[in-house]
Here is the input.
Amino acid sequence: MMTLFGDPNIWLPWSFGALLGVSILIYVVLDGFDLGVGVLFPFANGAEKDTMVASIGPFWDANETWLVLAVGILLVAFPVAHGIILTSLYLPVAVLLIGLIMRGVAFEFRAKAPAPWKNTWNGVFYAGSLLSSLAQGFMLGMYIMGLTWTWGNVGFALLTAVFLTVGYSFIGATWLILKTEGALQKKAVDWAKGGIWGLILGIGAISVASPLVSPRIFEKWFSFPSMLYLAPLPILSGLLVAYLWWKLSTLPREDDSYAWSPFVAAMALFILAFLGLAYSFYPYVVPEQMTIYEAAAAPEALIIILVGACFVVPTILAYTALAYWVFRGKATALSYE
Amino acid sequence: METLLLSRIQFAANISFHILFPTITIALGWVLLFFKLRFNATGDAKWMDAYRFWVKIFALSFGMGVVSGITMSFQFGTNWPGFMEAVGNVAGPLLAYEVMTAFFLEAVFLGIMLFGFSRVPNWLHTTATVLVAFGTTMSTFWIIVLNSWMHTPAGFEIRDGVVFATDWFDVIFNPSMPYRLTHMLLASGLTVAFLIAGISAFRRLIGDSSDGVKAGMKTGLWMAALLIPIQIFAGDMHGLNTLEHQPAKVAAMEGNWETGPNKPLYLFAIPNEEERRNDYAIKIPNMASIILTHKADGVVPGLNDFVAEDGTVMHPPVSKVFWSFRIMVGTGLAMLLVSWGTLAWIARRDPETGDRFRLKRLPKFWLWGLVAMTFSGWLATLAGWYTTEIGRQPWLVQGVLTTEAAVADVAAPMVLTTLIAYLVVYALLLTAYIAVIFYLARKAAKGENINNPIPQSGEATTGLGRGASGAAVPAE
Here is the structure.
């Protein structure tokens, strides 16, 4: 059977590399917007905070599960790489986890704890969202710089930490444009206008840094004819930014039309940026050290996961879609009744 | 060595904190379904009251479980890379199936279960409740499969120091899996039973005599009374299975140093590993032999069999296992006494009127006793897990991989720093969690929201009531 599909030592790692990439991408987009909503917390008043939480309440848990899947795939499909990456990112991982714990529990506590504590839990929610976003941006920066702890690399990672956090607040703001109305929606438009630079600078910094760090990546992008095939990536990104700039200046409209468009454009930008990254780093899972083919677990272990994934992942996507459909429309206050 | 010890403490701290919450949600999901189905069938509002109160505790516990579970998924990579390098080909697929078949199911349908009541048809809401409960149970299944495989590995071969699965049926249905799974599911049921009984008793004590509280209390007490004898039986079977596959663990549990017949059961002792004997022992002659082999002169394995000729100790640290085991069994016996005692009390008939005593005649001290037992399930569960996990040491995967061989080469101060950070966060969260549960109980007892569906705006309420006129409902 195997011969039908060629060498399992090639297509299995490739499939899992793709699955890993898709999981990370879905995670970054989905948890990106709900982390971003948390990052925007200090700019909102009390009632707006309730609406903001209501807009992500039914989704955040499932959104975070994509992180578990991504780490899970890295763990099971590329166990050696998983160890190298996570031990070298030991501290930022701990910060990320503590941040995720803080914001995850604050969802519950801010609504259930006695009223005088609500502000405290709002603060915990904000701090947790901020810490998680910063940690993810930091890890992204360190990963791009090859996971070595030098002052220069840490400096770059601190920059990407800020950019990704602002980028998350941007996609969070576009989500709020889609899910809210009235004064909060107006505010969200302003937040989006104020946050778009984070995404631009972030994508820009990574696009400049990664070819400079790695001659291999430079070669992949700036040689003929690949430059030609790749041209759509930066061009489309530029067009999307221009579109967002223009669209945001026209929102919100009386009839609430196009409220969805900034979020969709923001998602598209995240996807393009991610494709660029994936192209740069393929086939490496540990930058410049270990390819997905070297890091892959045994084919007999991978095949049994893949068979399951073929059935389960589409099902997951289907019921995720169901959840988003059930909670479609403007966010209403969350109620157990 | 320092990194090894700190990493072990960190893993223990993380997983101990984590297990508290799944232990509640696994069974509470099914109890909520029970409340919901009773309500669907009878239309009696008390079942909906019980559902509405406990779904909040469920949501809170679930949130705590999710975030502490994410921490667990990273611990393998940050602290124990050797684990996946050596046994990843077995552990990987099992963990992957847990994420794919359980995590997403519960996470996605939790949103609909919690917040979708007014947005979806009743059948879909009930289905979501079923799927969340099923998801938590599936998650238990996969993680217990992996954990059991680490105790009683089967269905594999080792090539160049790396484990490869040869028979997935044997991997999944490894010798200790059915016993451990049963034991854990029952532990979850008992934890929830005493949580419900305890919190309901607390609400009674502060003056809440609503039918919802009574329904909850009865459900908790009956659950406890039914499950505890089964649990004692299942635990005994599990012990016999351990005797067969991990004799060193049983030797440590019994504090038995020399293999031989007619071994006593130690009710109390301070195991002395240096002198290799038990100090200050109080014992029942022959009882360990009788429990483990059902014969007074049955042979019980001894710890001294697990010391290599060069003096290397290959058995677990004795006193930790010995005492964890006694705390677990002691708590279990207290559960038996309390649940059966309470049911016997309320079933008594008043000699004058001939009526049964019922819940309302439970004296105050008795109710306080139930309150004291609220988190007894946590104590027993943790003690049980310490028994089995410390009892596996020095192995990480019994006979295949030692714990020492799997630890990451991370600087000890880094492990210590993150450990302290986790401990501080966990201590604060646990305090907040317990405080909020009792706060919710007090609030429910005062009848806020439950009897009064009109919400108070701007208050951090629990969003129970839906405004009659569709007015803004406090955010959940």
Chain B has one domain: 2-245+314-445. Confidence is low (pLDDT under 50) at residues 449-476 of chain B.
